[in-house]
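request received
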Amino acid sequence: MSGFFSNRPACLGAAITLVVILAVVAGPWLSIYSPTDMDFLALLSPPSWSHPFGTDSFGRDVLTRILYGARVSILVSATGVCLAAILGTAAGLLSANFGGWIEAVLMRAADLLLSFPSFVLALFLMVVLGFSIASVTAAIMLVYLPIFARLSRNMATLVKDEPWVQAARLFGQPVYSILAREILPNIAAPILVQAATGIAFGIIIEAGLSFLGLGVQPPNPSLGSIMADGREYFSRAPWVLTMTGLAISIALLGLNLLGDGMRDLMDPKLRSRI
Amino acid sequence: MTTSLIWYSQRLAGALLLAVLGAALIFFTMHAAPGDPALAALGEGATPQAIAAFRLRWHLDEPVTLQFIWWLSSALRGQLGESLTVASGTSVAALIAERLPNTIFIGVYALILAVLMSIAAGTIAALKRGRNADVIATSAAIFGISMPDFWLSYMLIYVFALGTGWFPSYGFAQPQVSLAAAIHSGTLPALAIAAPMAASFTRILRACLIEELQKDHVRVARSFGYGKFFVFVHFVFRNALIPYITVIGLQVRYLFGGTVIIERVFGIPGVGSLMVDAGFARDFPVIQACALAFLLCVLVVNLTVDAICTALNPRRAG
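response:
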């Protein structure tokens, strides 16, 4: 752990992530406004002490809307990425352990999903499933499924013939127990790192879909739908879009720095390179 | 020669297989979508006769597998059906053919910008490792991968279109009509797509260059009296190029994904904005064709990247 604390960018990342999580969890108690309260005396007012990020065209406080919208965005992205991590890792473990046609079928399926531009895949799924929060979650899951499948299969292939796994096989441990107790703990770290960066990029996918109007639908605020609002009057009130995007960028910067730090910690060989 | 020929044909066969499987995935998923395409095309008030005629014309009453074979075989002949709602009655193939050059132009422009920016930033960062220039480049790179690209495009519009007025904030001149005008109007969209990609390219190039710089053959070459620049170009950069180009190949799917939303922001008539319009209008033939066009673009780029990497390192094919 001392390695982590001596890595200043990683600590910065952890601090940003912590602040973001606290702000999003405690958002309703932090703000004196509600995300839907309209103030017709303060339409499109620029950032000030009473409204640090300004107000939108209905006089709603942008910072409050970001805090509420971020809850939706983070929840959607984290759910999608976690589902992808669980299903993808299961597919990867099965492929590595059994090989043969199971591996061929699962890995070709992963290749197929990886051949589509990620955002096109998400967009396509939105059209098929309809525009809703559940569809956005499914779209993010589908984008990340092949990435986790490939990663876990490659890592599991490396450890599946290690002596302790062979010993477990000789002792007659059932296959599911070998996969869950012997192999999974040894490949968990890179999967967690991938999940951290995955949640960061998932937030961008959610924001993009909702920004186009295909994702989370109003009146639910999400980071993308707030920015879509802000686009309408961007030349008159640039702060709505600017502040929301800046908030996303800083939150994702935290997650990405944290992911980098975790990667360095796991693989000291890699640290000498970076 | 023969081994590499076999290797190339295996790659080509693999890509073709992925293309057919991808087409099947698109078709069958689309088919499972709720909503009747006949109703989507003709509107809620359509007469039963009109719906029946429509279903007959587009083979909608036949088994799904037969429909797929019919769709795939006509797609191979360049016929992708007609648009239902977005540009009702227009041939989908014509719509794609008209818009694909714009998407490819923006994509290639963005790729060139990303490669140029990342080679400059990655090289400086690796050579000045740990100094200010490195800290600036690596910080900019990690911020670059954290930004939503469509947000960046509005920031670019604010500064370079509304502020300085150097570039248009909306609209696009087609490259076939005027290349100079296309480059001018395509700069901001290409920059918005390029920046996050340049950031991730810079990170990988810097890591690869630093690894190569520490290798024994580099020290030996320097001790033989070869110049710093010569050693860097011939022994360091060349070896770092293979993982760098591989990563570019992997990132191409984000490149084409990025065009979808950026085309909407800048009003570029490309395949991405067409797909979004078709998504809103539930124009199934157009959505299928757009997804297929994007899939083929990625497959072509991946094959090219494979070929370049093998040319740089012929051992791969052996």
